[in-house]
Every structure is written in structure tokens, then in C-alpha cells.
Amino acid sequence: MDVKLELPIWILMQDFIPKGIAVVFQKGYYQYYKYLSMKKGNVAGLSMVLAAYVLFNRCRSYKELKQEQPSEYH
Amino acid sequence: MNENLFASFITPMILGLPLVTLIVLFPSLLFPTSNRLVNNRFVTLQQWMLQLVSKQMMSIHNPKGQTWTLMLMSLILFIGSTNLLGLLPHSFTPTTQLSMNLGMAIPLWAGAVITGFRNKTKTSLAHFLPQGTPTPLIPMLVIIETISLFIQPMALAVRLTANITAGHLLIHLIGGATLALMSISATTALITFIILILLTILEFAVAMIQAYVFTLLVSLYLHDNT
């Protein structure tokens, strides 16, 4: 039985040595701060905070919500 | 379903610790303070809105009443932001708790009334009898006015609680109805979904209006008493 891993092409181009992985995170970090500057106070920043709040509340009420799921077995 | 309907109104605790403190404090994160003259967009927008509201609300008061500006502006900001945040999915709205609304309404009302009684005793007592009442009606009217005075903080608190709670319940119910109807008939589900959208728009308006009404009434009680 073969398992075929379908990864996008760019991820295969990266080298999987530890330094290479760190470079990926570094690039992501710089890109993030290039596109989303916290000093300007834009709507994306606010919506991130609100999304985190929604997620936090969902985690908090997960137990009660679990009973509402239509079926346990998918 | 009955138990699930009211499950979103119980006070959130985590491992026995009150989480509600954090939730009550959360809206203050959304109003950043800034000491600069020219701020970023976000802070400028908030300051502009605050100036608009304070001018509109505090212009009717004399200088003595205007000392309450800070209190009333923080009140309207707190209630407005808490109500609006409660419209996000799964969130807990502190203003649905009667205890909290009573805790806001009673001290503010009592402060206004006691200020009136201390500084302008005659005028405050005169409020108990409207002008031009026929003499036989006077005793009954004084009793009625006293009752209406003492009911003011209760009405303030219960109005806010009931409006916000009812809105949240309606959204839960109609949302559940939409989900249940989807497997039965698609057109009815679509109609119910449109009702849900309209209701959500209404709830946004109600959230802000209730904050305004609360603050306006407190400011009116203040105006009567200063």
C-alpha cells in the first residue's frame, strides 16, 4: 500500500536542514511585518484580535458545544 | 435544546477561577490610549467618536453637571463595546447579567439623586409634585412620583438586561431553526436565514442604542438634580 504525499512544489524546493527551516520562519516573519504594520492601526489588526477572542471563547465553551454535534461518528 | 439555549448566559469559570473578570476587562484593550497629538487611524477615529458623543450628550448640562462627563463617556463606551463584542459567536456578554447592570445603574442613579438632594433640596423635593395638579389628587400623586423615582434604577438595569438577553436568545433560536429547516425545505431555510441577517443588523443597532439610552437617562437624572 503506497502513501502518496501531495505537497506543493515550493516546499520540496526547500532544504530540510535545521538552518533552512529557520530561514523559512525568518522570511515569514519579515513578510508579516511588511504587510501588516502595527503602527498604523488598520482593520486587519483589529480583526485579528477579535478572531482570537472568538477562538478563545470557543475553546472555553467546547464542552457544552460538543453535545450539539449531530453525530459522533463521521 | 432548552438547556443549551441558556448555557451561553452562565458565568464563565475555568477550573473554578472566574474567567468573567478577563472578559469584562477585554473591551478596554480595544481602546488604546495615546499621548501623541497626531495619532494613527484607529485612535483618531475613536477620539473623534468620543468627542462627537460627549458634545452631543453633555451640552445640556451646566458646569456642575459637566463634571460627570468622564463617568458618562466611559459608561457609554463600556456598555457599547461590551454589547457589540457580545454579538461575536460564542462570546459571553457581561451586560446580560442583571447583577452587573444593577451594579451600574443603582450607584449612578443614587449619585444623581443624592447630589440633587444635597445641593438643591427644595427643587428635588418639588419634583415629587408636577405643576398644576388639582388639590384632591396631591397625596396620591406624591406617592406615585415616589414610586416612579425609586423604580428608575430598576428600570435602567432591567431594560438593558432584557434587551440584550432577548436579542441573543432570538439569534440562537432563529439560527437553530435555520439549521433544522435546511434538511426539510431549502426555501424556508433561506427565508429564515434572511430573517437571521436582518435580526443581526437589528442587534448591532440595539447594542449601540441601549448603551446610548442608558447613558442618556443617567444624564437626564443628573440634569434634573444639578
UniProtKB/TrEMBL annotation, chain A:
- Respond yes or no to whether keyword RNA-binding is given for this record: no
Query: Which InterPro entries does the record associate with it?
Result: F1F0-ATPsyn_F_prd (IPR019344)
Which stretches are transmembrane? 40-56
Location(s), subcellular? Mitochondrion inner membrane
The alphabetical list of record keywords is:
Acetylation, ATP synthesis, CF(0), Hydrogen ion transport, Ion transport, Membrane, Mitochondrion, Mitochondrion inner membrane, Phosphoprotein, Transmembrane, Transmembrane helix, Transport
Q: What is its main location?
A: mitochondrion
Annotated Pfam families = WRW
Any one annotated GO CC term:
proton-transporting ATP synthase complex
One biological-process term from Gene Ontology?
proton motive force-driven mitochondrial ATP synthesis
Q: Which domain of life is it from?
A: Eukaryota
Q: Respond yes or no to whether keyword Phosphoprotein is given for this record.
A: yes
UniProt topology in membrane? Single-pass membrane protein
Q: What's one GO MF term for it?
A: proton-transporting ATP synthase activity, rotational mechanism
Q: Which PANTHER family match?
A: ATP SYNTHASE F CHAIN, MITOCHONDRIAL-RELATED (PTHR13080), ATP SYNTHASE SUBUNIT F, MITOCHONDRIAL (PTHR13080:SF16)
Tell me the protein family, please: Belongs to the ATPase F chain family.
The free-text function statement in the UniProt record for this protein reads: Subunit f, of the mitochondrial membrane ATP synthase complex (F(1)F(0) ATP synthase or Complex V) that produces ATP from ADP in the presence of a proton gradient across the membrane which is generated by electron transport complexes of the respiratory chain. ATP synthase complex consist of a soluble F(1) head domain - the catalytic core - and a membrane F(1) domain - the membrane proton channel. These two domains are linked by a central stalk rotating inside the F(1) region and a stationary peripheral stalk.
Quaternary assembly: Component of the ATP synthase complex composed at least of ATP5F1A/subunit alpha, ATP5F1B/subunit beta, ATP5MC1/subunit c (homooctomer), MT-ATP6/subunit a, MT-ATP8/subunit 8, ATP5ME/subunit e, ATP5MF/subunit f, ATP5MG/subunit g, ATP5MK/subunit k, ATP5MJ/subunit j, ATP5F1C/subunit gamma, ATP5F1D/subunit delta, ATP5F1E/subunit epsilon, ATP5PF/subunit F6, ATP5PB/subunit b, ATP5PD/subunit d, ATP5PO/subunit OSCP.
**Which protein are we looking at?**
ATP synthase F(0) complex subunit f, mitochondrial
**Organism of this sequence:** Bos mutus grunniens (Wild yak)
UniProtKB/TrEMBL annotation, chain B:
Its record classes its membrane topology as:
Multi-pass membrane protein
Coiled-coil regions listed:
none
Looking at the UniProt entry, the stretches that span the membrane are 12-31, 67-88, 100-117, 137-158, 170-198, 204-222
Top-level taxon: Eukaryota
One cellular component term (GO) for this entry is: mitochondrial inner membrane
Q: Does Mitochondrion count among this protein's keywords? A: yes
Q: Where does this polypeptide localize?
A: Mitochondrion inner membrane
**Pfam family name, one:** ATP-synt_A
Keywords for this protein = ATP synthesis, CF(0), Hydrogen ion transport, Ion transport, Membrane, Mitochondrion, Mitochondrion inner membrane, Transmembrane, Transmembrane helix, Transport
Its recorded reaction(s) are:
H(+)(in) = H(+)(out)
Q: SUPFAM superfamilies given for it?
A: F1F0 ATP synthase subunit A
Which GO-annotated molecular functions does the record name? proton-transporting ATP synthase activity, rotational mechanism
Provide the primary localization: mitochondrion
Give the UniProt family note.
Answer: Belongs to the ATPase A chain family.
Oligomeric state and interaction partners are given as:
Component of the ATP synthase complex composed at least of ATP5F1A/subunit alpha, ATP5F1B/subunit beta, ATP5MC1/subunit c (homooctomer), MT-ATP6/subunit a, MT-ATP8/subunit 8, ATP5ME/subunit e, ATP5MF/subunit f, ATP5MG/subunit g, ATP5MK/subunit k, ATP5MJ/subunit j, ATP5F1C/subunit gamma, ATP5F1D/subunit delta, ATP5F1E/subunit epsilon, ATP5PF/subunit F6, ATP5PB/subunit b, ATP5PD/subunit d, ATP5PO/subunit OSCP.
Q: What name has this protein been given in UniProt?
A: ATP synthase subunit a
The gene name reads ATP6
